[in-house]
């Protein structure tokens, strides 16, 4: 089992910045990906950004150049720095960790979600 505790989020005006954090604890293995997804009302959950333990990152096209993902492997924590926020970034943001356990079985866990609201 893995527990994910998110922090950050809130209300910000367009053009502003927010930083999300997510700390993982529990049965964490060395080969995992941590990332952030978001879900806006009436829309499907989508990947925002993800990063491997080795530091390789990928981003949704809609956030490239504005959002930066980072992780501290020693703390099992992933961060999402969100700059130049737009109203369309409004959503519930979910932390995610997935990978393979010692037996090669895939696992995935989700945080409880944190609301990000960008006003115009």
Oligomer: single chain
The mean pLDDT is 95
| Rg from Cα | 14 Å
Shape: elongated
Portion of residues in helices? under 10%
The number of strands is 11
Alpha carbon gap, first and last residue: 40 Å
**Main β-sheet: number of strands, strand sense, barrel status?**
7 strands, mixed
**Proportion of residues in extended strands:** over 45%
Helical region count? 0
- Would you identify the regions where 5 or more consecutive residues have pLDDT less than 50? none
Class of secondary structure makeup: mainly beta
SSE order in H/E notation?
Answer: EEEEEEEEEEE
Describe the structure.
- The protein has strands at 2-7, 10-13, 18-26, 32-39, 46-52, 57-59, 67-72, 77-82, 91-100, 106-110, 114-119.
- With 120 residues, the protein is an all-beta fold.
- It is built from no helices and eleven strands.
- The strands form two sheets. Strands 2, 4, 5, 6, 9, 10 and 11 form a seven-stranded mixed beta sheet that branches.
Keyword list:
single chain; 120 residues; mainly beta; four-stranded antiparallel beta sheet
Could you write a compact summary of the structure shown?
The protein has 120 residues and is mainly β. It has strands at 2-7, 10-13, 18-26, 32-39, 46-52, 57-59, 67-72, 77-82, 91-100, 106-110, 114-119.
Question: Helices, strands, pairings?
Answer:
Layout: E1 2-7, E2 10-13, E3 18-26, E4 32-39, E5 46-52, E6 57-59, E7 67-72, E8 77-82, E9 91-100, E10 106-110, E11 114-119
Parallel strand pairs: 2-11
Antiparallel strand pairs: 1-3, 3-8, 4-5, 4-9, 5-6, 7-8, 9-10, 9-11
């Amino acid at each position: 089992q893995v527990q994910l505790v998110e922090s950050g989020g809130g209300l910000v005006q367009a053009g502003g910045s927010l930083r999300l954090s997510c700390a993982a604890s529990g049965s964490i293995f060395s080969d995992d990906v941590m990332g952030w997804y978001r879900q806006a009302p009436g829309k499907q959950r989508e990947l925002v950004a993800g990063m491997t333990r080795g530091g390789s990152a990928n981003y949704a096209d809609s956030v490239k150049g504005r959002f930066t993902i980072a992780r501290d492997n020693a703390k099992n924590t992933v961060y999402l720095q969100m700059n130049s926020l737009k109203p369309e970034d409004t959503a519930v943001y979910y932390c995610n960790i997935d990978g393979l356990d010692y037996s090669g079985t895939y696992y995935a866990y989700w945080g409880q979600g944190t609301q990000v609201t960008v006003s115009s």
